[in-house]
Each structure stands twice: as structure tokens, then as C-alpha cells.
Amino acid sequence: MQFDSDGDSNRGFGFAVDYLSLVLTKPDPAPETKIYVPMSRKYTAPAVKGCPDNEPNSVKTQGSVITQFGVACKGTLPPGDASDFYAVDVSANRKLIVDLNNFGKNDYDVYLYNANSDTPIAQSALNPGLPEHLEFTSSSSQRLYIWVVARDPYISPYSYYLTVQR
Predict the structure, then answer these.
(1) Alpha carbons 134 and 136: distance in angstroms, whole number
(2) What pLDDT does residue 111 have?
(3) In a domain, 29, yes or no
(4) Residue 21 sits in which domain range?
(5) Where are the alpha helices (DSSP H) in the chain?
(6) Which of 67, 91, 107, 144 ranks highest by number of CB atoms within 10 Å?
């Protein structure tokens, strides 16, 4: 199957997809130049500054501060590592939105804590494979903690994307 950016297979940047590879074809003057990308190879997003997944971070006080908002931060939970903590600073009367996704059919959940409590102030714990989403409006300026939990830390994939907006 052949496609290109403007719906015409004779012009533009084209690509073809089969079951084993993705073939990218450059437009004229070099129409025969092809780049093969094996479909079995997983794409790894580049690290985003301000989205730290620094280990160890399995307890609240180890959570690295997120300073990049509105972008998907890649996190990993290697086999046996069941959770990651992150910290985020919020202003009073500001809504915090947290989305957790791209973890396959696994059961990942996300919880939000303030500094003084071990009881979540917001949470999303849906069925396995479903993206998690939570929203919280802070009544005061404070540091909040996001806890990402894998309910079975021995099932791959071991990565996820966390997006925080405020």
C-alpha cells in the first residue's frame, strides 16, 4: 500500500507499509531513495528535559520535580520496580491534569498526594490497559506528588508516558 502527504502517489513525501517494515520514500529529485524502518523495533522517544525519571524514585521524597508541562514524559518501571514518584509545584486555584498512557494491556494506576498525607487527594485506577486521567484543583500553592503504580511489575512493557498540565 503506497501513500503520500497529499493523497497523490506521484507527488510529495510517500511511505509504504507492509507487515514487516515501514518504507519512507523521498520526493523528487531522488524518488528511489528509501529508508527502511523495521516495524518490530520500538520507537524510543528522546529524553525531554524537565521530565525526569531518575532512579531511585519509589518513595515520595525521591520524586524528581517535573518542570516541563504539556508534553509526554517517558517513564520506565524495570521488572520488579512497581512504582515511580514525581513532584510538581502548583499555584493556588490552579488545575492540575495528569494523564498516564502507552503501557500496553498492563494495569497501571496514578495517584496524587500532598506533602503531609499518605492518603491520595486524587486518583485514577481504571481497568488494565485503559489510559489513566485525573484532575485536581489546588486550594493553595504547594508541592504535590504523582505516584505511578504498576499492579503487576513483571509484565512488559515496562514503560509509560506521563503528561502533566497545569
Answers:
(1) 7
(2) 97
(3) yes
(4) 2-38
(5) none
(6) 144
Model pTM score = 0.69
- Considering the domain architecture, whether residues 76 and 130 belong to the same structural domain is answered as yes
Please write the tens of the pLDDT for every residue from 102-135. Answer: 888 888 999 999 998 899 999 999 998 899 999 9
Give the pairing type, strands 34-38 and 21-25. Answer: antiparallel
27 against 129, higher pLDDT? 129
> Residue 124 and residue 140: Cα distance in Å, rounded?
22
Gap between the Cα atoms of 11 and 3, Å rounded: 10
In a domain, 47, yes or no: no
pLDDT of residue 89: 95
* Separation of CA 111 from chain center: 15
C-alpha R_g of the chain: 20
- 98 grid coordinates: 495528569
Q: Does residue 159 lie within any of the structural domains?
A: yes
The Cα–Cα gap between 80 and 16 comes to 39
Average pLDDT, the chain: 75
Alpha carbons 72 and 8: distance in angstroms, whole number: 33
